[in-house]
Every structure is written in structure tokens, then in C-alpha cells.
Amino acid sequence: MALGGASSFQTRLARELQHRGHVVLSESFGIRANADAVLINGALGKGLPKLLVSRLAGTKPVHRLDGMYWRHKVNKISPKTRLRQAIYNRSMRLVRSISSSIVYQSNFVQQWWEKEAGVAKASSAVIYNAVDLEEFSPKKVRNQAGGRRILMAEADIEKDVYTTSVLKLLPPLLRKSGRVDSVSLYGKISDEFSRELSSVEGLAVFGPVARERMPEIISEHDVYVSMDVHAACPNTPIESLSSGVPVAGFATGALPELIDKSCGVVVPYGSDAWQLGP
């Protein structure tokens, strides 16, 4: 159902490591067994005390760091969600402080963390997310539907002022230009928000989709438009580029590191992106 995410990354990484002859243990068992290394992807909840004990025993934690939750600072959300996101950020900070190596998903993520939490004592490197080129590659025949089609896809499409404005204003403007026939929106979205968007001219809301279908869906479109602001290292834009589909988005987050004039375009946000200003 999901477009990707941490669990998807871990599954694919474990499969590749096993293919290369490494023994991959489950998170809790690996910590108990004092594995050679423990990969922590983002935050760690109940397993944090076990990780501390394992670290003292000589296991080397490798921390793959995403960006932090930040929209709760500007969006109106429930106190429960706000607290959960704050705890998640704190957990990532604690794991980062005891890790022996840190893998940042982009230069943007590294600079963000070092600004918020200082330079880590651990060794670090920037490694961008990769894609399986057997799944995502340019197709000889693409988009036989006729006109230009725009793809927008996010794992979770949350209703806020920014997202609502983009989805209600962009598709009609693109249709009015005469250069675009339709905009397709994929991702987990509430029924209420989906109904609200149903009247937007040129926008087709499809909801969540199995990850296995993404290569086909991407190849059916002509351009991928990223709605994400301050993306750490977004998977779908990278998958689109690997499929020969150009990417457009705001010049925020890691997008300027991934996109140049040969494969897409990034434009200035126009106001304070950290405040999701108009």
C-alpha cells in the first residue's frame, strides 16, 4: 500500500546484504547477539536500552539519519501527534550521540543535524538513496495516452495549508497553460481530503498504491512534480530520474543536490519555506 519508507528501505537492504553473503539478524536479536554492527534507521524506541548495553559490549552502531520532524512547529496538529514527533526527534538525537558511524542521506541532512545538534564525534559520510535499476530504468515506449501527464506522489498526503494550496492551484494552472492534460496524485490520503480535491480541474486522485506498481506508474507520466519541502533524500524523485522522467520541485532540502538542468528544474520557494509561507 505504501510508496516506500523506512521499512521498505530495510527490507531491500537486508535482501541485498544477504545476497552478498552477510548474515542479517532481526533488530532485537542482533542487539542481543552482539552483532558486528547494528544499523539503526532513524529512531529507536524500546530497543534503546539494549543498544546502550550492546554498545558497551563492543558492538558498533551505524546510524542512518533522515531529516527531523519539523512541520509540527508550523502546522496545527493534535497534542498527541506533536508529542510523538518530538519524542521521535529526541530518540534520533540520542542514537546519533552513541553511534560509532553516521550515514546522512544528503548534504542537506548533515548540515541540518549539525546546525541543530552540533557536529557528531562519530565518523560520518553522505550516501544518497539508491534504486534498483532493474526496476527503474528508461522505457523505450512511454505515455501512449496522448498528452503530457504530471505525476505527484507522496507516502502520506496530509491536509495542511501548503499541501491544499498546491493541489488546488497547480493542476488548473497547468491545464490552462495548454501544455498538460492531467495531474495524477498517488499516496495515502483521507477520504475527506480526497473528496475535497475531487472538484479540482485536471487532478485525478488515486490514493495509495503497491510499491511494485511504481515503475509502471512513473513510466506512464512525462514529469514528476515533488510536493515535498525540505526532503531529506526523496525516493520517488530518484526513481523518476532513473526511469528517464524529469523532476520539478522547489529548491529546498536535498532536491538541488539531485537535480540539474539536464534532468529537471528546481525553483525558489518564494518565501520562508520553514514556515510554509505563501
Secondary structure: elements and pairs:
Blueprint: H1 6-19, H2 27-32, E1 37-41, H3 48-56, E2 60-65, H4 79-98, E3 101-104, H5 107-117, E4 123-126, E5 149-156, H6 161-177, E6 182-188, H7 191-197, E7 203-207, H8 214-219, E8 223-225, H9 235-242, E9 247-250, H10 255-258, E10 264-267
Parallel strand pairs: 1-2, 2-3, 3-4, 5-6, 5-8, 6-7, 8-9, 9-10
Rg measurement, Å: 20 Å
| Shape label | globular
* Uncertain runs: none
The proportion of residues in beta strands is 15-25%
The percentage helix is 25-40%
Helices, by number, come to 10
Mean of residue pLDDT? 88
Major β-sheet, in short? 6 strands, parallel
Q: Structural class, please?
A: alpha/beta
Cα end-to-end separation: 32 Å
Tell me the series of helices and strands, N- to C-terminal. HHEHEHEHEEHEHEHEHEHE
Number of strands: 10
Task: Tell me what you see in this structure.
There is one protein chain. This protein is an alpha/beta fold. The protein is built from ten helices and ten strands. It has a six-stranded parallel β-sheet. Strands 1-2-3-4 form a four-stranded parallel β-sheet. Helix 4 links the parallel strand 2 and strand 3. It is globular. It starts with 5 loop residues before the first helix and ends in an 11-residue tail after the last strand. The mean pLDDT is 88.
